[in-house]
Amino acid sequence: MAGFAVTDELEARTGLAMSDFRFYSVSHSIEPNAHSLGGHSIGLTGAFITLCEGDELTEDQVLAAITHEVGHHAGGALRFSAVLTWLALPYWTTAFLVREAVEWKPWLRLALPAALAAAGVVLLLHGSTLVRVAVILAVVALIAVPVLAGAWSQREEFSADEYAVDHDCGPGLRSYLRQFEHLDVAAHEVGDTAG
Ligand SMILES: [Zn+2]
User: Fold this and answer.
1) pLDDT at 182
2) What are the sequence ranges of the domains in the chain?
3) How confident is the model at residue 183 (pLDDT cuts 50, 70, 90)?
4) Any transmembrane segments, and where (predicted)?
């Protein structure tokens, strides 16, 4: 880390004991980023740590990025997010398998949806009531899950940014987001009027 007492400064700004948090390095990501995980855990990507060690991030930027993550925990909504993730797990698993299949055989990009749609139509026409309901629920989930998950995570990002701004990290957060705008680190810009 850059040569300053990150922990002391974080405690001063947030009023929370950093010993309650666990920091991990998440090596597999090439984006300089930080993540909030369950159980008061905060993951810092290898790229983020490299930037810190190379003094390519200012003290304010590092503090802002981590305070944003602390904000995810402080809101208490992380537990609800975890529940949502579990509920949507069948959806994300299927989406992952479809992506992998398409990467493996590119022609599946058209064939797979066509086959699924055909199967859906056949089941709707000839299946039992239970099967029909299941097909309809699957179609609803296909549309609703990504939309709801996107809306929820954007809401969470806004409130974590708000937390950082409320805890003296406004300028650091803005310059951090500006520097990594092209990487889509955050879902939005923090308004320049925010303190
Ligand atoms: Zn966040």
Assistant:
1) 62
2) 1-187
3) low
4) 77-98, 110-127, 133-152
Residues measured by CB to lie within 5 Å of ligand 1, the ion: 157, 160
Backbone angles phi, psi at 16, to 5 degrees: -110, 150
Q: What's the 90 CA to ligand 1 centre distance in angstroms?
A: 24
Q: What is the pLDDT of residues 157-175, one digit of tens each?
A: 899 999 999 999 999 999 9
Query: How far is it, in rounded angstroms, from Cα 102 to Cα 16?
Result: 46
**Residue 190 and residue 161 in contact, taking contact as beta carbons nearer than 8 Å:** yes
Give 179's contacts (C-beta < 8 A, 6+ positions apart): 61
Closest by CA to 67, choosing from 192, 190, 149, is 190
Query: Alpha-carbon distance 131 to 118, whole Å?
Result: 15
Q: Of 5, 13, 14, 11, give the one whose Cα is nearest residue 74.
A: 14
**Å from CA of 43 to ligand 1 middle:** 11
pTM of the model: 0.72
Token couple for 174: 């803005």
